[in-house]
Design a protein that fits this description.
The complex is a heterodimer of chains A (about 375) and B (about 400). Chain A has 11 helices and 13 strands. The two termini of chain A are about 30 Å apart. In chain A, the strands form 3 sheets. A 7-stranded mixed sheet of chain A has the order 2-8-7-6-5-3-4, with helices on both faces. In chain A, strands 9-10-13-12 form a 4-stranded antiparallel sheet, with helices on one face. Chain B is α/β, with parallel strands linked by helices and about 400 residues long. Chain B contains 14 helices and 15 strands. In chain B, helix 3 crosses helix 4 and helix 5 crosses helix 10. Chain B is elongated and about 90 Å long. The two termini of chain B are about 35 Å apart. In chain B, about 40% of the residues are buried. The chains are: A alpha/beta (about 375), B alpha/beta (about 400).
Chain lengths: ~375, ~400
Amino acid sequence: MKVNTIYLDNSATTKPYKEVMQTFMAVNEQYYANPASIHAMGVESNELLMRAREQVADILKTEAKNVLFTSGGTESNNTAIIGLARGNTHKGKHILTTEIEHPSVLESVKQLEKEGFEIEYLHVNAQGVISLDELKAKIRKDTILVSMMHVNNEMGAIQPVFEAATIVHAESRAAFHIDAVQSFGKLPLAFNGEEGPDCITISGHKIHGFKGSGVLAFRKKMQWQPYALGGGQEFGLRSGTVAVPQAVALSKAARIAVETMNERAEKYRKWQQQIRAELEQFGDVVHILSTPESAAHILSFSVRDLKGEVIINALQKYGVIVSTSSACSSKQTKTSHVVEALNIDEHFKKGVIRVSFGAHVTSEDIAQFILAIKKVLMELKGELLL
Amino acid sequence: MIWKEILIRYGELSTKGRNKMDFIRRLRENIRYAFADLGHLHIRTERDRMFIAIQDEAQMNVLVEGLPKIFGIQSFSPVAACDKDMDAMKQLAITIMDTFKHEQLTFKVEVKRTDKTFPLDSHGIQREIGAHVLPQYQNLSVKVKHPDVELRVEVRHDSTYMMAQVIPGAGGMPVGSNGKSLLMLSGGIDSPVAGYLMMKRGVRLEAIHFFSPPYTSQNSLEKVKVLANELTKFGASIRLHVIPFTEIQVLIKEKVPSNVSMTTTRRMMLKVADKVREEINALAIVTGESLGQVASQTLESLTAINAVTNTPILRPLISNDKLDIIEIAEKIGTYETSIQPFEDCCTIFTPASPKTKPKLEKVEHYESFSDFDDLIERAVTNREVYIFPKKEQPTDKFADLL
């Protein structure tokens, strides 16, 4: 019997929208000229690039000149953190981030630590959320950068970034960067004048765009030191021939993501509740990491004394694709740093499964998933459940 | 909706008497022109201020957004209205003061009672409204002289009017109140800024551009059109005269020694511009020249170039530093366009070492061997004229891709 493949690993990556693929092909065929060239074809692809940039700027409520196209979330995070830190040493060398960041943030700050910057980490509670009081206590006059994930990739916790921004701006001259890779297109997000974040990371392939595309956007012109050096593209802030097809495709994916956000959020929330209700019936065999307040598109749970890998393989027999806590760290054998930070029961640390929804998931898929997870849990944990 | 009208305070009125009426009439027309999309506006003018009636919130937002770009406005204030009833007035005062609740401010209530039949007198109204507002806001303290916020209440015959916000305008004088000039518009940073500054002084502009195909590209012309269009944001339409300049430039290159060819080129441009100026009844020519920037902008050069005409040449940037000019260009939104790298006719045949101190007699002597007049005549006749702002929207070839 052939089973349908149910893809529920959208927080790792998504399938590009058809329209986005068409854009990508068309731009590669017609507007392949280097946008830095001054001949007619170059001028035309530059015009298209500018339009794509303006569209992203409109969505984020900033100006086109503050939108840089990058190769993805990792590059955006690296560029923002290292660039803002190195560019503001005259104000201080203190940096704040959280213990549940993506490796592209954590590795950046570790690099900075070697260069003499002082790094402090904010803790999270059992729900995966930082404490604003701790932020208030740790922020200092010489803090130059605060970097925070908007939505956690492993369990969907939402950080109070707008409240945090108010504190950061009131208490320091620090730049406030948010990694919005998991929140853009899922939660309302835009620069909010003086009150919101200063710098935002977006990734194309998490919003049904392409891998290898991303955005780093600023609220205003900021002091930072670029590290991609060369021909002075992207206002001199990120050299290298701009990948126009990726950029235009990302701009289109971003538009669709924002236009369809509310209707998708409603669906995701309903599915999350459905699955949660089913899992709760397994009592203390299953521990649900994502709280009802967390982002609607991610549901993380853990099965007592079972390795995540075992569950993934078992689900695969029923055609269901999910992942352990995060794709980036799923091949490592040690427990994820996010799960460690949540301070959960030892019995549940090894078995974290992440189910994440995307635009191509249907209600039928969810029904099939529920059936599959029930069967798998009965097979693997039958003696406990009976 | 609480908003009733926008009150506009005029900019400087340097000339009095009948010119003042002209000033006010110009300003009213420019406002109508700038907000043509909103349909017919009801504008009432008085000696010292002007009122625009507001239909709805959306219209109000468009006006508040656009008015700071129009020259001749010192400041303006949205005005709210309510019934002539103390409770309604207190309620409106609170609604207005709510917009100031986030800052620590000094404040006073100022009352004017035109309708003398209203039971309370000015002092009474002032006391009652002040006593109602103050206890509700921790951030307000009373200051009679120069408060941060003055809540102005006017009890007129029809309603009570109130305002508290004073939004700065662009200053300057209404475009058109000081005659018309011809702007020599290259694709560079300076000339659009020069045009902007003259518009601020009330001068209506037409623009002239020298185009030398195939040495200069369509891109460089498109860039100038974008710049001309940008300048129309400041409240007036602009005609752009595009002069086919290739023949003249080629002749100069062939017949005039290279170290003075740049001076001759500028002289010919000015001659052409002067003919166009005459045809369009403009009174002066405006350039973006600034002293000492390039070889053609030394006093000796300017003298040699200027010798072809008696028309006033206005050079609003003459004493500005480049960085100051760039700052204005960024502010008015022309900088990004200006720095696009397309050659224009000023740079296309630039000699390696132009004379910075050309002698007028020498230049005239070298020019005397060629007949430029016919070519100038032909260039003026064959010019193309474009009108901005462009009314029709160009079809968007990228729409499907985005």
